[in-house]
Every structure is written in C-alpha cells, then in structure tokens.
C-alpha cells in the first residue's frame, strides 16, 4: 500500500472503486469467460490479462481527469472542440448509447436465464417483471442499495468459481504461460473481442470520471488498481472453471457442472448469481447511458431527454427478452460489439487526458502512460476491425 495511505483509507478506496469491477462482472463476463474456457481451454487467458491491465490504465486516466479539472470526461470532451463540440458530443453519445443498449439485451437475457434455472416461471413473464422493476427503480432513482446487495452476491459467486478453478486439472505453469502468451485458435476472434469488450467497458470510463472527485490521486490509483485486479482474477477463475464444462455449452450444463463439483448449493448460487449479475447490470447500463448524456449534452436528471435515453436502452433489452432470443449467442455478440466500440471512446479519453488547455501539467499523461494507452487502443482497434472485416466478408460471400 502506498505510504501516503493509511490502511483504513486504502481499504475504503478499494471498496469505493469496486463498483467498477462489479459493473463489468455481468452475465456477459460470466458467459464469455465460461464459453472461452469450454471451447479453447486456457488459450484465451491472455486476453483477460491484457484487458485487466488495460482497464486499470484507462479507468485511472478517466478518474485522473476529474481529480485534475473537476470536470467529468463528457464535460472535458464538450469543452475541447469549440464549435464542433456539439457534433463530437453527439457522435460519442450515440456510440455509448449503442453500446449500453447492446449490453442491456444481454443483461435482461442473463437475468432471466438465471431465474429460469431455479424456477418454472415463464421467461416472458420474468422478462416483463424484471423490466417493470428496473423502470420503477430508475424512475425513482433508488438503485444504489439494491445494486450493492446484488453486486455482493455476484462477488460471492466469483469466489465459488475460484474454488471450482482450483479443482481443475490445469497446472500452475500452464496457467501462468497462458496469461502472457497470445494465441489465436481458429474461430476465436469473436471471443477474444468479447473478452476484451466485457472487461474494458466503455460506459465505465464515464462512470469513473464522475465519481472520484473527492479522492486524492494516491487513493484513486490504489483503489482502482486493486479493485479491478480482483475483478480480473474473478474473470480468470470463471474462464478456468469453463474448462470443466463438456458437451454443448449452456447455462444448464454449467449449473450441473458446479453441482457435480461442489454440491447442489453451488447450482443455486450460480443461478441466483447469474440473475444478480444481469439485474444489477440492467440497472447500471440505462443509468450509465443517461448519465453520459447528462455529461455530454448538459441535460438535467429530471429532463425528458435524460429519461428518454434510459427508457430507450431499457426498451431494447426488453424487446430481445420478449422475443425469446437465445441468451448465449446474443451475449457473445454484444461483448464483441462493445469491443469494437471501445476504441471510439478511448480515443476521446486519450485526447482529453493530454489536453494542455484543461489538464494541469502534473496530471497529464507521461510518455509511458501514452504508450500504454495507445497500445490498449491499438490492440482493441486491430481486433475490432478484423472482426468487422470477417463479418463483411462472410456477408458478401
């Protein structure tokens, strides 16, 4: 722990920033990591180590902007482009809203899938009920306590996966090697982008830039680093657990695998944890889209535009749920879409954190931080562009 931090303030900062790791450990993370482990063993573990480090780098930069300037990332973008700021803000907002809407489809489907593992209630009814509760809570603005409780359950589920991972046949040497050795098996591109997109979540950058105003630089860096590292380790444990899943991948098969390894209690925990991950994220994604709109466009939290944004995001998720879309393919595609959108948001973040006009010298990026950020953006753009090219090629053929 940094010398300038006491044990109490350091622990408090970790708990404070755990909202970021709780936000990215949703049904998308659970599904993508399990599927990656089931199909490719440990071969894609490197994508999680890359994305965990990338998340720390980008979230630290977003939070540093606010500590340095007192402005959120959206406000910095809005002030950095003069007469073009409205157009730039609109394009960026469209990107974030599109990403949040895509996430929301996976969130709703994941939450319904979790409940369907332990109840016989109609998925259509569950979708409508979850949507109604989310709309009610978002309209009232009382989402914090519920999100914290369900987020805690998600972390407990992560601990269960960590225990399952220790029961796998994977050696420590193979695990360490897979963390640092990039491998691209055939037909793994979508999953690689998904693993990156489900960890480095674009809307979390706006969240980080808006909640750290009262923290010191040391507290913020310690809290973000440790909290996100814990979240990354949980994601890795889920991937390793996925290596135990045999046969056709499904949530039911995963639940049965956990029950065989740990007992029936773990099956119930997985089901409720999957629901909790989906429900928590179903609250977070529409809210994050609306907060981003507020930051970029200056709309008030009681304005019709603000509410229209989160209602639109919620509506898209409900449509997918009511159409009874298969959850696993939708969730995987959603993570890939967000991996493609990620460079759009991070390019603006890179420009903002280097702004001489808005950021004091001591808070702007060093050359080493710029190299690290450009590496994250470059790799994300490479895989995202590659994935788009493959999709276009398949469409034309």
From TrEMBL:
Say which domain of life the source belongs to: Bacteria
Q: Which GO terms describe its biological process?
A: iron ion transmembrane transport
GO cellular component assignments: plasma membrane
Topology of the protein relative to the lipid bilayer: Multi-pass membrane protein
- Gene Ontology MF annotations: cadmium ion transmembrane transporter activity; manganese ion transmembrane transporter activity; symporter activity
Chief location: membrane
Positions in coiled-coil regions: none
Which UniProt keywords are present, listed alphabetically?
A: Membrane, Symport, Transmembrane, Transmembrane helix, Transport
* Location within or outside the cell: Membrane
Q: Which InterPro entries does this chain map to?
A: NRAMP_fam (IPR001046)
Give the residue spans that cross the bilayer: 12-38, 44-67, 87-105, 117-138, 145-165, 189-210, 222-244, 264-292, 304-323, 329-350, 371-392
- Extract the PANTHER family matched here: NATURAL RESISTANCE-ASSOCIATED MACROPHAGE PROTEIN 2 (PTHR11706:SF33), SOLUTE CARRIER PROTEIN FAMILY 11 MEMBER (PTHR11706)
Q: What is this protein called?
A: Divalent metal cation transporter
């Amino acid at each position: 722990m940094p010398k300038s931090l006491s044990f109490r303030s350091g622990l408090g900062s970790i708990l404070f920033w755990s909202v970021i790791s709780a936000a990215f450990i949703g049904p998308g993370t659970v599904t993508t990591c399990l599927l990656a482990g089931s199909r490719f063993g440990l071969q894609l573990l490197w994508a999680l180590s890359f994305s965990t480090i990338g998340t720390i780098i980008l979230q630290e930069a977003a939070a540093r902007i606010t500590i340095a300037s007192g402005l959120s990332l959206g406000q910095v973008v809005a002030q950095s482009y003069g007469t073009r700021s409205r157009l730039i803000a609109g394009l960026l907002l469209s990107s974030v809203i599109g990403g949040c809407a895509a996430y929301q489809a996976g969130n709703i489907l994941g939450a319904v899938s979790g409940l369907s593992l332990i109840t016989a209630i109609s998925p259509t009814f569950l979708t409508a009920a979850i949507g109604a509760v989310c709309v009610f809570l978002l309209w009232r603005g009382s989402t914090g306590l519920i999100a914290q409780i369900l987020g805690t359950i998600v972390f407990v589920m992560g601990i269960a996966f960590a225990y399952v991972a220790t029961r796998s046949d994977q050696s420590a040497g193979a695990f360490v090697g897979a963390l640092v050795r990039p491998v691209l098996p055939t037909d793994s591109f979508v999953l690689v982008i998904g693993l990156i997109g489900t960890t480095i979540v674009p809307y979390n950058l706006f969240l980080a830039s808006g909640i750290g105003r009262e923290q010191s630089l040391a507290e913020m860096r310690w809290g973000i680093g440790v909290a996100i590292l814990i979240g990354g380790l949980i994601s890795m444990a889920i991937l390793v657990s996925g290596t135990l899943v045999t046969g056709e991948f499904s949530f039911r098969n995963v639940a049965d695998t956990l029950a065989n390894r740990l007992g029936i209690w773990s099956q119930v925990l997985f089901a409720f944890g999957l629901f909790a991950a989906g429900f928590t994220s179903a609250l977070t994604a529409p809210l994050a889209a609306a907060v981003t709109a507020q930051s970029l466009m200056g709309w008030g939290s009681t304005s019709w535009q603000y509410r229209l944004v989160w209602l639109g995001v919620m509506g898209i998720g409900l449509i997918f749920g009511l159409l009874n879309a298969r959850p696993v393919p939708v969730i995987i595609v959603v993570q890939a879409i967000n991996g493609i959108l990620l460079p759009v948001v991070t390019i603006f973040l890179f420009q903002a954190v280097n702004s001489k006009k808005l950021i004091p010298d001591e808070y702007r990026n060093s050359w080493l931080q710029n190299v690290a950020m450009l590496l994250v953006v470059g790799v994300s753009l490479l895989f995202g562009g590659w994935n788009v090219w493959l999709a276009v090629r398949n469409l034309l053929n």
